[in-house]
Amino acid sequence: MTMRAPALIDGHAERSGDSALMLGYAAGDAAAFDALYARHKGGVYRYLLRHCGNAGTADEVFQDVWMSVVRTRASYVPAASFATWLYRIAHNRIIDHWRSSARAQWVSTDGDDETNPVHSVAAPRTDEPAVRAESRDLRERLFAALHALPPLQRDVFLLHQEGGLTLAEIAALTDAGVETVKSRLRYASGRLRAMLGDLA
Question: What does the alpha-carbon distance between residue 182 and residue 186 come to, in Å, rounded to a whole number?
């Protein structure tokens, strides 16, 4: 099963100019913001949507993430990659959302329970009802599989798959060790393969 979403940014080569763009935006270059938004909107939105499982909520949090980028542009310091900084904002907004809705339980079950990939779902090629129904069923199954993961494992998986972040970047973002992140990603991937293996 291919785990990497095809729409992801192609590694650090594509993102290498992000910090310069953000600094340009902070200095008043609106076109720099447009470039950053175009590069990262898809990954950020999928990260949020696959956490929330609800398009309306994801839209709301998505807008809040980008408004935070706008509000904090003057204080941006490229201490880490722009993607790490951006996904930290998205990560924090997701936590805020779950706390406010009293649904969050960010507890670790890494490796404690062995019983317990998501790739992008392609848009239907036609508007035929059968194709739409099949696509909807597949999306629901993928969302269900993601939401069956412990939240910390799901978060690491989505940061890696949708954000394109490295293990070191995820570790810095989540204040966890690289080995812990690696373990969470391994357990998440294994569980998803077990649940979705027939889709390979």
Answer: 6
**Angle CA(68)–CA(156)–CA(166) in degrees, nearest 5?**
85
Spatial distance between the Cα atoms of 58 and 146, rounded to a whole number of angstroms? 15
Contact predicate 46/120, CB 8 Å: yes
Residue 68, burial from CB neighbour count under 10 angstroms (0-12, 13-18, 19+): middle
0.85 exceeded by pTM: no
Secondary structure (3-state) at 168:
helix
CB 154 within 8 A of CB 38: no
Q: Mark 176-189 as b/e (b = at least 16 C-beta within 10 Å).
A: beeebbebbbebbb
Report yes or no: 126 and 11 within 8 Å, Cβ to Cβ: no
The pair of three-digit structure tokens given for residue 25, joined into one six-digit string: 């935006």
Give the residue carrying structure tokens 């008043």: 28
Domain boundaries, the chain: 11-199
The tens digit of pLDDT for each residue in 153-192 reads: 999 999 999 888 999 999 988 889 999 999 999 999 999 8
Provide the CATH topology of domain 11-199.
Rna Polymerase Sigma Factor; Chain: A (1.10.1740)
